[in-house]
Structures are given as C-alpha cells and as structure tokens.
Write a structure and sequence with these properties.
alpha/beta
Length: 123
C-alpha cells in the first residue's frame, strides 16, 4: 500500500527543480520500495504561491520553470500571499523549503517553516 504525502515546494531554483527531477525519474521506485508517493499541492517562487489540492505534475512544473515560467502563471496562483500565509490553509504534510534566504533574518524560509510546523506538517 502506498501512502501519499502532500508536499509544498518553496523555491524552484536548482535545488527545487532537482527535487522535481527525482520525483519524475524515481517516483515509481520510491513508491514501490518505500510505499511513499509525493503529491505537490503547493509551490512557490519569487513571483508568488500556487496551490492545487489535486497536485502539480512534477514534469510539467519542471519544464515550465526551465523555460522561464513563473508560479504566478500557474493555475491555483494566489495573488499577494506569502508562502507562510498560503501554508496556513494549504493541504500539506511536508514542507520542502529551498528558497534563497536572507542570512540576517532567515526569511522567507523561516516564516514558511514556522507556519508548516505550527499546523503539524513536517519541515
């Protein structure tokens, strides 16, 4: 039996896109060997946040970003919300935070991690 984990991916630069590639190339193996499937229900980049409870397709999302696309152009885009605000209501069990960070304040990642942890998601 496979357990589906609803995940948020904050940051779609090199690290975030590499995670998408892992889901694309090894998702079936992870499901078969470990009984885990990851569904990306929330994604964010510097243009904003998008939420899709049914999940974003990792291949489509990776190609969109590699071609210069932005989250603000995706279905489910939530104008004006920060990742932390979106995580307050998004269907998320796991937060993968890979955004650029301000070393003085820890933002925007610190607020996103706090929001996810406060509602019981793993970060």
């Amino acid at each position: 039996m496979t357990k589906t984990i609803d995940a948020a991916l904050i940051g779609l630069g090199n690290v975030g896109r590499s995670f998408l590639t892992i889901l694309e190339t090894k998702g079936e193996r992870i499901a078969a060997e470990y009984g885990l499937a990851f569904r990306l229900t929330c994604v964010a980049d510097s243009s904003g946040v998008a939420v899709q409870p049914a999940g974003f397709d990792p291949v489509t999302l990776r190609r969109h970003k590699e071609s210069g696309g932005r989250v603000s152009a995706l279905d489910g885009y939530l104008p004006g919300l920060t990742p932390a605000e979106a995580l307050a209501d998004a269907p998320v069990d796991l937060l993968l935070e890979a955004s650029p960070v301000n070393l003085q304040t820890g933002e925007p990642g610190l607020s996103a991690v706090r929001a996810a942890l406060s509602r019981g998601a793993a970060a």
